[in-house]
């Protein structure tokens, strides 16, 4: 709540004016029953058309003024709510981007998307309705009761019984339904997660012909959601009939007791109508108040979930000293040095990496090979400090990575992840992710090295080629080559290629490796692959097995002395490529 108030304070005037104008509207609404009473008692009973026209005009004027105040209040409420929602989304997006990989892995992408969309919308709607009704409804209920007692104390006695009975019914239903609505919201989160997984994995689902099973799973989840929603809906549905029964009993009591007083000459017919109108106003506002409380309970639950994300602190501080690249004349300072490094994922029972020690000099190409799950990609993620090692020390150009600002590290490291990720927009914009002010000449140079220039030229649009979301209008190999080019545009001192050529044919892969070797002589290059052919030309090869280094050396040295590397070469059944007969 404190966080929400901090956002509302950005627009204090409109936030205060919204409920104020709603109260002004309600004030004019409370005078309407009195005007109607006078029209009946004086205009109709006294057969005075002029008075009827006069009071009718006054009632229309009150209605117009009230309507104007209502529009003004709703404008201010909507503006305050939308502004609050915009600021929450902005700050939440900024905060999510400040989290390290570890927090994002723990929370989950689908959860973060739900918090950014569904939950923030719920909070925004809650703010809007709160500003419009939180003062108006209680004001009308209390005001109508006071006005009823000013008409006649004895005739207004049913109000003293009816309103407490209404409050008991309304809040009893709310106390039962509010926890159930929270369960409904949790089930909706599950449906959204299932929907996202199915849409993102639609090709895999069809490839394995799992459409029917996924449909059945989705139907089970929606059926559960349906049952919970219908159950809570039935409870909430009791609100209207029960309140109407109580109100109608109150109206009957007014007519009964008021009728006797009309016969006795102590009340007029207009006053009885005024009392009935006040009773109806109370009914309407209590129903609105009940719906507001239900909406606010959802909004508060959503706000709590949003606050949970805000309270999640990054395990990696954004502060630190900038990474300084030493002059080559300063001596042989390793570009990357691992000193007995170990790493364990959050919540994991066993270590993913342990006892890693090696150095990589500037201009050196390091190949990293190993079986699935051996820790290759995790090792690559430690170099740009996507994660912090749980043991040991990592140094970049002699500087402890924990003391460096993550942003300054990323400016000197180019990384191409396993899954090629492109963004919607032009090819030029995608390439300038590597260097914001990159010229067309620099981009074309990177495309040439990445073996991507030919297919870009073939499309005939040059750097204005439109890239669809996720690069869906490109093949897997084309996307991989473009992501490599994007990393090369920035001319990084350290280049990490994490199995980034897996979709390329052997000929293109060979040309790519040759071009990289010729053009990145000043950079430290890490080639991570399961292909022996991709790493065999590296200056040194690290052989990974079960999270530790099982061997280090050149292709020929490992082929002669390292059983793990020999097994990898043999398993690929490409003797000539592996160099067994070299």
User: Which strand order do you get reading across the main beta sheet?
Assistant: 6-9-10-3-11-12
Number of domains: 3
Based on the coordinates given, report the CATH architecture of the largest domain: Up-down Bundle
CATH fold type of the largest domain: ABC transporter transmembrane region fold
CATH class of the largest domain: Mainly Alpha
According to CATH, the homologous superfamily of the largest domain is ABC transporter type 1, transmembrane domain
Flag low-confidence runs. 574-582
User: Helical element count?
Assistant: 22
Largest sheet: 6 strands, mixed
Summing up helix and strand content along with how strands pair, one would put the structural category as: alpha/beta
Strand content: 5-15%
Give the fraction of residues assigned to helices: 55-70%
Mean pLDDT equals: 84
Amino- and carboxy-terminal Cα gap: 71 Å
Shape: elongated
Strand element count: 12
Using only C-alpha atoms, the radius of gyration works out to 36 Å
Task: Give a verbal description of the structure.
This protein is α/β, with parallel strands linked by helices. The protein folds into 3 domains: about 1-310, ABC transporter transmembrane region fold (Up-down Bundle); about 320-410 and about 495-580, 3-Layer(aba) Sandwich (Rossmann fold); about 420-490, Rossmann fold (3-Layer(aba) Sandwich). About 65% of the residues lie in helices and about 10% in strands. It contains 22 helices and 12 strands. It has a 6-stranded mixed β-sheet, with helices on both faces. Strands 2-1-4-5 form a 4-stranded antiparallel β-sheet, covered by helices on one side. A two-stranded antiparallel sheet has the order 7-8. β4 (about 390-395) and β5 form a beta hairpin. α2 (about 10-45) runs antiparallel to α11 (about 270-310), α3 (about 50-100) runs antiparallel to α5 and α7 runs parallel beside α11. The longest helix is centred in the first third of the chain and has 50 residues, at about 50-100. The two termini are about 70 Å apart. Mean pLDDT is about 85; it is low at about 575-580. One of its GO terms (molecular function) is ABC-type oligopeptide transporter activity. It comes from Merdimonas faecis. Its main location: membrane. InterPro entries: AAA+_ATPase (IPR003593), ABC1_TM_dom (IPR011527), ABC1_TM_sf (IPR036640), ABC_transporter-like_ATP-bd (IPR003439), ABC_transporter-like_CS (IPR017871), P-loop_NTPase (IPR027417), Type_1_exporter (IPR039421). This is ABC transporter ATP-binding protein/permease.
């Amino acid at each position: 709540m404190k966080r929400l108030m901090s956002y509302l304070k950005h627009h204090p005037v409109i936030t205060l004016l919204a409920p104020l104008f709603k109260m002004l509207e309600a004030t004019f609404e409370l005078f309407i029953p009195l005007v109607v009473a006078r029209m009946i008692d004086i205009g109709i009973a006294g057969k005075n058309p002029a008075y009827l026209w006069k009071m009718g005009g006054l009632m229309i004027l009150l209605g117009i003024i009230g309507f104007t105040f209502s529009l003004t209040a709703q404008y201010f409420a909507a503006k305050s709510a939308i502004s609050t929602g915009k600021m929450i989304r902005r700050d939440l997006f900024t905060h999510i981007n400040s989290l390290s990989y570890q927090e994002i892995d723990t929370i989950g992408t689908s959860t973060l998307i739900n918090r950014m969309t569904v939950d923030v919308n719920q909070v925004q709607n809650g703010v809007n309705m709160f500003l419009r009704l939180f003062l108006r409804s209680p004001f009308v209920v209390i005001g109508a009761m006071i006005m009823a007692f000013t008409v006649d104390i004895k005739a207004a006695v049913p109000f003293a019984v009816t309103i407490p009975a209404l409050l008991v019914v309304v809040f009893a239903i709310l106390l039962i339904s509010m926890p159930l609505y929270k369960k409904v919201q949790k089930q909706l989160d599950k449906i959204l997660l299932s929907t996202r997984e199915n849409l993102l994995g639609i090709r895999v689902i069809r490839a394995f012909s799992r459409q029917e099973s996924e449909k059945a799973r989705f139907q089970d989840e929606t059926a559960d959601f349906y049952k919970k929603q219908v159950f809570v809906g039935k409870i909430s549905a009791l609100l209207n009939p029960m309140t109407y029964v109580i109100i109608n009993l109150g109206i009957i009591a007014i007519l009964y007791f008021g009728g006797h007083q009309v016969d006795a000459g102590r009340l007029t017919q207009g006053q009885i109508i005024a009392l009935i109108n006040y009773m109806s106003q109370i009914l309407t506002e209590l129903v609105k108040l009940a719906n507001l409380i239900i909406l606010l309970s959802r909004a508060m639950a959503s706000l709590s979930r949003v606050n949970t994300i805000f309270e999640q602190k990054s395990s990696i501080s954004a502060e630190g000293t900038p990474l300084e690249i030493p002059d080559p004349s300063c001596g042989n300072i390793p570009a990357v040095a691992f000193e007995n490094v170990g790493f364990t994922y959050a919540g994991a029972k066993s270590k993913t990496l342990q006892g890693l020690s090696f150095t990589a000099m500037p201009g050196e190409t390091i190949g990293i090979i190993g079986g699935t799950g051996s820790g290759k990609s995790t090792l690559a993620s430690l170099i740009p400090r996507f994660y912090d090692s749980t043991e040991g020390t990592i140094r970049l150009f002699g500087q402890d990575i924990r003391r460096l600002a993550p942003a300054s590290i990323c400016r000197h490291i180019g990384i191409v992840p396993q899954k090629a990720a492109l963004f919607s927009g032009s090819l030029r914009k995608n390439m300038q992710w590597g260097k914001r002010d990159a010229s067309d000449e620099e981009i074309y140079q990177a495309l040439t090295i990445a073996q991507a220039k030919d297919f870009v030229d073939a499309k005939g649009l040059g750097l204005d080629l439109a890239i669809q979301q996720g690069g869906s209008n490109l093949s897997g190999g084309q996307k991989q080559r473009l992501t490599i080019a994007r990393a090369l545009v920035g001319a990084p001192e350290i280049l990490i290629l994490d199995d980034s050529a897996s979709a390329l044919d052997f000929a293109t892969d060979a040309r790519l490796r040759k071009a990289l070797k010729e053009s990145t002589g000043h950079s430290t290059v890490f080639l991570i692959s399961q292909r022996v052919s991709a790493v065999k030309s590296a200056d040194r090869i690290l052989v990974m097995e079960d999270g530790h280094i099982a061997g280090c050396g050149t292709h020929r040295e490992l082929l002669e002395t390292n059983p793990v590397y020999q097994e990898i070469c043999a398993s690929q059944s490409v003797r000539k490529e592996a160099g067994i007969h070299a």
